Amino acid sequence: MKKGVMRPGHVQIRVLDLEEARKHYVDLLGLIEMDSDDQGRVYLKAWTEVDKYSVILRESDEPGMDFMGFKCLNEAVLDSLAEEIRALGISVTELPSGDLKDCGRRMQFVAPTGHTFELFATKEQTGKWGISSVNPEAWPRGLKGMQANRFDHCLLYGDDLEGNLTLFRDVLGFDLAEQVVDPEQNRVALFLTASMKAHDIAFIKHAEKNKFHHASFYLETWQDVLKAADLISMTDTSIDIGPTRHGLTHGQTIYFFDPSGNRNEVFAGGDYHYPDHETVTWKAEDLGKAIFYHDRQLNERFLTALT
């Protein structure tokens, strides 16, 4: 049941060298630098996004994800969902407007898998980059690199998947679009959506809490994914796997690493989901085909390279 969470709003990623990260996310991925703040954080967006930013880079001595935020329909939804989260026994901290630049108040909490999430309803809207809202052209000139369309989702690793399912499905109103189950029918992966997309957030079972697998960005076509692969080679960027297709979600994909070791994905295509669709189930013994549909086997790096 939808409860007013609209979409992924932003992700704050820790990087070891801010200037190297800026080159990667702007020149290679094609995000647009929008702002910075007095903490030294850099704010980026993809060109189709109407909010001012969706990716925040923070320099740190350890890579990974600080938090992921979801945008809600309005401030009343924000308050209502915060109360429901508290009723589940999870502490919620209200962060004031302006704590993130040009963003309203945020309700921040730690999920059962140890990852930090937040909800917000207000952020400055700058519109699609380089495109008017009246008689808009097809695309803006001056885009760089892979020309990422939007920040799409994150995949995170952690231990308590059932706790996360209760939080995201029963409290926040996400649908369980796809899952992976082991022979005993225990869930070992969740793909959850608040929209019509194949997923807005995904989790894979892992012994350690609070591990970051990747942040994903949407491209328009398979040809764009192949171009991304060319750019990865042209820039000697560290590649994980691809181009290939997923079984889960059926997206066309390639994975690679930023200079700090954080994994990125760009992908095109993929399934859609409506609330009346039943959950798609994959068997854990067929996980190779579920993740990499063509090779039908997992590479060790994909499972173990986490930040």
Explain briefly what this protein structure is:
The chain is α/β, with parallel strands linked by helices. It folds into two domains: 5-120, 2,3-Dihydroxybiphenyl 1,2-Dioxygenase, domain 1 (Roll), CATH 3.10.180.10; 152-304, 2,3-Dihydroxybiphenyl 1,2-Dioxygenase, domain 1, CATH 3.10.180.10.
Runs with pLDDT <50, length 5+?
none
Q: Please state roughly what percent of the residues sit in beta strands, choosing from under 5%, 5-15%, 15-25%, 25-35%, 35-45% or over 45%.
A: 35-45%
> How many DSSP E strands?
17
Q: Helical residue percent?
A: 10-25%
Backbone shape: globular
Distance between the termini: 32 Å
What would CATH call the homologous superfamily of the largest domain?
2,3-Dihydroxybiphenyl 1,2-Dioxygenase, domain 1
- Rg, Å, rounded: 18 Å
Largest sheet: 9 strands, mixed
What is the domain total for the residues? Answer: 2
* Strand arrangement in the largest pleated sheet: 14-15-16-13-9-12-11-10-17
Average per-residue pLDDT, rounded, comes to: 92
CATH topology of the largest domain: 2,3-Dihydroxybiphenyl 1,2-Dioxygenase, domain 1
CATH class of the largest domain: Alpha Beta
